[in-house]
Amino acid sequence: MLGRKQEIDLKLNQLFDGIIVAIAFWVSHKLRYDNVGGIWPDEVQIPAFKDFLWLVFIIVPFTPLILELNGYYKNPLQKSAFQSIKQYLRALIFIGVLIGGCVVFFQWAAQSRGVLILLVFVGGGMLLGKEFIVKRFIRAKVQSGKWHEDVLLVGDIDAMRTYKSKIEGLADTGVRIVEEVDLNQWTKGGITKLLHRYSVQRVFLAAKDVSFEKVQAAVTECEVEGVEVWMPADFIRTTVARPSLDAFEGNLMMVFRSAPEASWAILLKHITDRFFAFLILIITLPLWVFAVIGIKVSSPNGAIFFIQPRGGKNGRPFKMFKFRTMVTDADEMKKELADKNEMSGPVFKMDNDPRIFPFGALLRKWSIDELPQLINVILGQMSLVGPRPLPIDEVEEIQETAHRRRLSMKPGITCIWQISGRNEINDFDDWVKLDLQYIDNWSLFLDFKILLKTIPAVLLNRGAK
Questions:
Q1: Is residue 163 in a domain?
Q2: What is the pLDDT of residues 166-202, one digit of tens each?
Q3: Same domain? 114 vs 223
Q4: DSSP secondary structure string, 267-325?
Q5: Engineered SS bond to 155: which of 137, 206, 311, 336, CB 3.0-4.6 Å?
Q6: Cα 66 to the chain's mean position, in Å?
Q7: Is 177 found in the same domain as 137?
Q8: What is the DSSP code (8-state) at residue 150?
Q9: What single-letter DSSP state applies at residue 260?
Q10: Residue 162 sits in the same domain as residue 136
């Protein structure tokens, strides 16, 4: 159903799925430990179940959470089995990365890959099987008329017609409209009589072209009867922003967000950003040494690091680190080269930039110059994935107000623009479109895909100059 009941159902569903995963883990271990079916060599023995407890404590609680982040529990009655399988496979990728990180970073041993392989199929079969059975059960109950909720639809004719079609298109919810009330023809006490007649516990209010006084009076009638009133938030038209409710100092607020809201997914993004940034920094230390020595030899008069104020989230300045790849007077030369800018808009871009010294060109070719930005990620100023940060002077030159929405997320080391052949994009509008595409469709899985595509882009040095 809807609202608080839906939230309660979600938590119960996640708790039940956690129990299922725990059972599936035990079954998988039992199948491998007893070598059921003789799949594995008899001489290869695995430890007892107690030696797998660290995996249990990671997989059992995190599986329902990661499934939720991948939309597994969203609109369960409307989605197909294929969508569920795809969401489950996405969750497996994140769990695999999590386990791999624990093995590498904490040196925790994964005692048997066979158990984990079995768990993928046993756990997946049990989770997807449970979802299929529950969906069949709910649909059968709703279709039989045993599970339904009678509601009133109140508002103006046009708005009610639109909203009624939405409700009827979601027949699996069990919501049934028993009466429609036109507030433009409404008389005081009319809603109260219908509440008594049908004993409803919820009223949907779809009133775009009704005076506020009539809406207030209708809500008051429901309030006196202790009946909930649900009102869609589409009476304010927005192009991108998504409305939601929140509270500020005890006052109910309607919030319009055009960027991902603070959530468990965003929190997990920040945590994994710092964790993997630190891990990558340790792994790439030889490249840091290579860059430091090369810069001091090829351009001894300048600093090793290029530190420049950049526009962070919402335009807040921060100092971004890179290995220096240009001559020491590069900023002064930029003014002289302004007429050779190949990028429209506030961004400066030029092929064969004469300010880059030879070793700096090598660092840029293999994106080694970007490595110091891992420090910015560890400090929480940047993410691994996000819109590329612009210099402060270029941020101030942005003319289109819509372009500033790219600043609504924390900037990143890589992004869609980086993996889309950035040197072939010479229009700042196209660059911004890619950033807004990322913001509007953001998910942890999208970040993961961009990171995977960044690896071949770097190794094949596509677009880096």
A1: yes
A2: 776 655 567 788 888 888 888 888 898 998 888 887 8
A3: no
A4: HHHHHHHHHHHHHHHHHTHHHHHHHHHHHHHHSTTS-SEEEEEEE-GGG-EEEEEEE--
A5: 206
A6: 11
A7: no
A8: E
A9: P
A10: no
